[in-house]
Amino acid sequence: MQIIANGLIQGLLFALMGMAFSLVYSTTRTFHIALGAIYALAPYILLACIQAGVGWVIGVVAALCISALVGLICEEVLHWPFVRKGAPPEVHIIGSLGMFLVLIQIIALIWGNDTQVLRAGVDEVYTAAGIRLTRAQLVGGGGAIIVMAGFFLWLRRSDLGLQFRAMADNPVLLSLLGRNVRNLRRMVFMVSAGMAGVVALATAYDVGFDPHGGLQAVLVGIVATIMGGRGSLFGAALAGLLLGILRSQVIWHFSARWEEAATFLILALILFFRPQGLFGRALRLEEKV
Amino acid sequence: MNYLLHLLIYFEIYIIVAMSLNLLIGYSGLLQVAHAAYFGVGAYAAALLALKLGASFLPALFGAALAAAILSLLVSLPAWRFRGDYFVMISLAVQVTLYALMYNWVDLTNGPYGLSGIPRPAIFDSTMATQGGVFAFYGVIVIFIAVTLGLLKHSPFGRALQAMRDDELAARSLGLPVRMLKVQSFLIASAMVGVAGGMYGAYVSYIDPTSFTLDESILMLSMVIVGGTGNIRGPIVGAAVLIAIPELLRLLALPDAIAANVRLLAYGLLLILMMHWRPQGLAGKYRFE
Q: Is residue B261 part of a domain?
């Protein structure tokens, strides 16, 4: 039970990361690797704010805002110019990889390569029905649920979800219909970066952080996105949840060293038996990119 | 003088790496990011053959090529189905998995401690004691591989690869065995990078998994992207540029702690700038479409 509970909390964070990646990928067909750098950046902003003595609340808000800003920068200097040139997906990927490297190295140059922590000492532990959870886990899991629920509610209450689908389908037509695709894209990148920031802060509060954890995080996001099926935000979230539970089982039964390999083994199996993802629909040949 | 020779030997090794990667990116249009893992497979195979079975240099290199070629099925079979960003994801997964194997399979690879005391390169019974000897010997191997690739490019096989790169569907409709072509191109490219790995291990006489990480794969990718894809001279230019960058940064006399960060920062910037202004590379022919 305890293992499943731990996995569930981890899974909720993975789910949010999966959604963050999937949001950009499903709407703009951009492989947003630089999201990993945003993930790495957010805790440092919070740490800097706390050290400056402005308090947790402002620190968290500042970290999320700066995350969103960096997301916006990725879109403005990288992906939008590429779209205007009609660049193929490979160019987006390589550009995003370059951006990832640049951001991570800037972080490492400013704050150093060492692991840092947001809190000192042992966390408070709460016990209920035989399950023990730390406060960090509760905050992380709860935060992830709130953000995801809020986002799905937003999608449902406005025609945003419809616009996202339309943009994924045919951005040119959407702009001909009088929608501002440019702003929609900006929003997608900012919201996604904000989500990654939330995951990063929760994880950093729990286990600490260093500049190089971003890659793992974005890989999890990518795997969740592919597992969930392209274009399905809900699928990505559910796949992330599943991934968290499965990974905690691997750690318990084998060893934490095989965690990464297990993730990709799951991915390989899914791609082999269900290439459209768990919740995606099969594409016709001419729809495939 | 010795230092210059040392750089030139690295240059030779990376020429092979970049040229073999170019076979995949420039001729087959498949964006492979697991190349460092195959480089590592070659290095480990050659080192283990030499250390545990007492194989001499050339048979060990042959074993390295064979091991890398067999393992290339891990990427080439999924490549039957996936292109573009999904394929990148697969090769990313292979990179992480192979790295996890090298790191965690302690009985075979000695894990994070690496393998030391790898015998120096030798032909028949005469060991290359001096760097000049190694340089000349490796030069012969490089020329052999470059000539092979040059002949391959203009062979029916090479033309079929380029047809597949430009339009897979059309190539299939003309009766080209697209799946077989992919498997073959990965076999050849992986065998070549495996040889390069074996040469690397024999030259530095110590290997550990950290030389075969994703960062290293990105470096190899940058060589091909910066130098140019789709011809022979592109990768050579790329290898020269990317080996020269750290040496030029050395002139700035940066402190050791940040030198590595600045180097990666430069690589990232280079990738972004190339994607913006010269997606076909400095001396390349093919650009992603």
A: no
Domain enclosing residue A204, as ranges: 2-281
Q: Which two tokens stand for residue B47?
A: 């080192």
Query: Is residue A287 domain-resident?
Result: no
> Per the structure, how many domains does chain B have?
1
Query: For residue B252, with 0-12 CB atoms within 10 Å meaning exposed, 13-18 middle and 19 or more buried, which class applies?
Result: exposed
Which residues numbered 84-113 in B keep a CB inside 8 Å of some CB on A? 84-86, 88-90, 92-94, 96-97, 100-101, 103-104
Q: Give the tens place of pLDDT for each residue, B232-283.
A: 888 888 899 888 888 888 887 777 777 778 888 888 888 888 888 887 777 7
Phi, psi of B285 (to 5 degrees): -120, -45
Residue found by looking up tokens 């070659």 in the block:
B42
Rg (CA), chain B: 18
In residues, how long is chain B? Answer: 289
User: In chain A, which residues have their Cβ closer than 8 Å to the Cβ of B267?
Assistant: 98, 101
Cβ–Cβ < 8 Å for B230, B13: no
ipTM of model: 0.83
Domain count, chain A: 1
Token couple for A176: 């001909």
- With residue A180 as reference, give the H or E element that holds it: none
> In this predicted model, what pLDDT tens digit does every residue of A135-148 receive, in sequence order?
778 888 888 888 88
- pTM given for the model: 0.86
DSSP SS3 for B126: strand
- Torsional sign, CA A197, A116, A240, A264: positive
The domain in which residue B73 lies consists of 2-210
Q: Which residue is closest to B75 within chain A, CA to CA? A: A268
Query: At A242, which CATH number?
Result: 1.10.3470
**CA B7 – CA B246 distance, rounded (Å):** 11
Determine, yes or no, domain membership for B244: no
Which residue, A88, A76, A52, A49, is CA-closest to A65?
Answer: A49
Q: Coil, strand, or helix at residue A276?
A: coil
Closest to A10 measured CA to CA, from A99, A185, A116, A133: A133
Q: Is residue B276 part of a domain?
A: no
- With a CB cutoff of 8 Å and minimum separation 6, the contacts of A80 are A182, A185
